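Handout for the seminar on molecular recognition.
Each group receives one record of this type.
Step one: identify the two inputs.
Step two: read the structure output and locate the region that could contact magnesium ion.
Step three: write two sentences on what you found, then compare them with the reference statements printed after the record.
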Amino acid sequence: MATATIEAPASGPGSVHSSLHRSARSRKARDRLATLVVLLCLLLAMIPLAWILWTVLSRGAGLLGDAHWWTNSQRGITARRVGGGAYHAIVGTLLMALVTAVISVPIALGTAIYLVEYGRGTFARAVTFMVDVLTGIPSIVAALFVYALWVTTFGFQRVAFAVSLALVLLMIPVVVRSTEEMLRLVPRDLREASYALGVPRWKTIVKVVLPTAFSGIVTGIMLGLARVMGETAPLLILGPYTTSINMNIFHGNMAALPTFINQDRNQALQPALDRVWSAALTLIIIVMVLSLAGRAVSRLGSVKK
Amino acid sequence: MAKRIDVSGLDVFYGDFKAVEDVSLTVEPRSVTAFIGPSGCGKSTLLRTLNRMHEVLPGGRVIGKVTLDDEDLYGDDVDPVAVRRIVGMVFQRPNPFPTMSIYDNVAAGLRLNGVKKKALLDDVVERSLKQANLWKEVQDRLRKPGSSLSGGQQQRLCIARAVAVEPAVLLMDEPCSALDPISTLAIEDLVQELKERYTIIIVTHNMQQAARVSDRTAFFTIAGAGKPGRLVEIGDTAEVFSRPTEKATEDYITGRFG
Ligand SMILES: Nc1ncnc2c1ncn2[C@@H]1O[C@H](COP(=O)(O)OP(=O)(O)OP(=O)(O)O)[C@@H](O)[C@H]1O
Ligand SMILES: [Mg+2]
């Protein structure tokens, strides 16, 4: 088609005109085709997502309207009986996520700041490589590693804190990567503007670079949290389920939503199955609320427009 | 408070690449000196050595001597951060801090260096914005983000931010190249006012601008790609523009450069 357009002038103004039109028509057609293909891909990607959401919502929404679901545990409730709530598992999931975040966010931020602002040479490359490796380890390997350390070597019990340690291994690389990207997006101009005012480097990082990248960093942390909240392998290996409420991360069994789901998923009895779906929906909702909250926080403190 | 700058035998490197070779010049206090020359001849590079900003770039280093009122900027026990408090800089593209309001932008230099007193900061912000000819336009929206201003206003905001810390020297790297003629004139007027108090060096590609604002002009050139930039001549602006001693300067000024 390109050649047709180039040759056209030789055969007179009329044909220039028509060939211009022809190429415009065919471009429009191709444009429409491409749009269609992209839309189809989008639909294909959306189908399983919508399907999952619909299934979980239709089967799990029933119990969520009941206040007991949010305030009661499963203590004393058998698979045969209706009732009880997910409070014990919600609290467990949130607690473990909180402990994971408290440990991994400072480490991950420090690592990312080191890599972007200071890291040069072999050591920085080694750190980057290690983060890459960490990104790739399966959650069960992280869990077994912590098991070997916590239980086998130190002889401690399987408690929520050990689960958090395994989750830390999974969360750190996610947050390091996203924070690194966000820090690299902060223009060198801003750093130089700050240096030129006689502001030392560390203060430039704390007061200029981090606030500028704040919203992206928060989003990355939320994504990391969302990822670890659904992790099941560390819970299976390090965090035995219980039907009761436990707030002590260093002592006793602690429930979490994934283990709650896992506990009852093989039950043949309807009341237990209903609770499984509701627990799944609860987990989805919590993750969603967290990422929305993250977005809101990031909007508050982000670059002013 | 304005200070005199002496550069002697200065070579500037990016790693192994020598970008500027053997520059010696003197900049008088309370004067405006223009750096002119073709693109790539090392004007920005040289400028950035005068407040030790050059060395924040990977591989950036210098050989030679720069003194500020007889104090060696590259002396062993000199803190580059302290140098930058005395020698301020305005960049080619306006770069207000995007997370800060107009007020906070101007106050940034003092605040980040530990000044907390509200009354003092208020005074400094007002005085600096007035010096930068921006006060009237922004006095009732000091809490708005700095990025909400027009390009010309942003550049004047950056100038206010730079003068707020009361430097002795102000380096300006093509401060008007992103601005319209009216903002450009506003900044040129401003430079005229600021030179009462500061030593100013301005890099520009605009010959008329150099002729209008500067007392002295330094012309740099480069022999070819990969060669270091050199100082060809420096003198009173009127002299350099009307009776350049070097043929290269004359060719460049009259547009016959090539
Ligand atoms: N960060 C850098 N790393 C390596 N070389 C650089 C760097 N910045 C500039 N240079 C080189 O140094 C030389 C001088 O560049 P400089 O930016 O000082 O020129 P200039 O005179 O300011 O040009 P312009 O008028 O286009 O701004 C050029 O050859 C350039 O390629
Ligand atoms: Mg330049």
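Reference statements: Chain B touches chain A at residues 51, 53, 56, 58, 81-86, 88-89, 91, 93, 95-101, 108-109, 112-113, 145, 147-148, 158, 161-162, 165 (CB under 8 Å). Chain B is about 35% helix and 25% strand.
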